[in-house]
User: Which sequence fits this backbone?
């Protein structure tokens, strides 16, 4: 089974495929129609895959994600009883800040906006997700995306590798805020 693939996103009628020089694979993908934000069709990208065994049709369906965090969120959403792969897939594609706010403020209407989810199911999903997300995953959601990008940009300008910066940010033990942003940058530079 595949869990990561680098290739180009292709559209044939209503079906989506990720294709590289060796093979192509049909996927469910909700990312930007022309690929990731800022990227054009036929540009090579890396996708994180989740193989899902569909018991009714006895097939493997691949769900493709732009980030590993989306894949983790999908897996967490699948653990909720009554949530199938299509609903979990849509939950995983919610903006992290929107999801964070919904969980913190117990705002079930965010989930109710997803096709096929009523108020009762939305409340159930909210409370189960609040319990299913591990502390480390929840802390990742708690990082302000704007600050995250600012730190990456600042450190990239100093010549540090983007992937290494992300790795350090993901493992940072404290919540990142505007007040401690400079301290975070100093500690990451020290660790590299």
Assistant:
């Amino acid at each position: 089974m595949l869990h990561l693939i680098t290739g180009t996103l292709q559209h044939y009628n209503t079906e989506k495929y990720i294709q590289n020089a060796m093979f192509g694979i049909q996927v469910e993908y909700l990312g930007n129609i022309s690929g990731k934000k800022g990227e054009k069709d036929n540009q090579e990208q890396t996708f994180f895959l989740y193989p899902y065994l569909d018991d009714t049709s006895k097939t493997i369906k691949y769900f493709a994600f732009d980030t590993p965090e989306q894949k983790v969120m999908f897996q967490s959403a699948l653990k909720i009883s009554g949530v199938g792969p299509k609903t979990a897939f849509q939950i995983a594609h919610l903006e992290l800040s929107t999801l964070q706010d919904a969980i913190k403020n117990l705002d079930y209407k965010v989930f109710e906006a997803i096709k096929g989810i009523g108020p009762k199911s939305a409340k159930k999903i909210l409370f189960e997700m609040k319990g299913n997300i591990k502390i480390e995953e929840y802390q990742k959601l708690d990082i302000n995306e704007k600050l995250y990008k600012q730190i990456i940009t600042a450190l990239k300008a100093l010549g540090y590798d983007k992937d290494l910066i992300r790795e350090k940010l993901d493992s940072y033990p404290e919540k990142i805020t505007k007040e401690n942003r400079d301290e975070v940058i100093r500690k990451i530079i020290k660790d590299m």
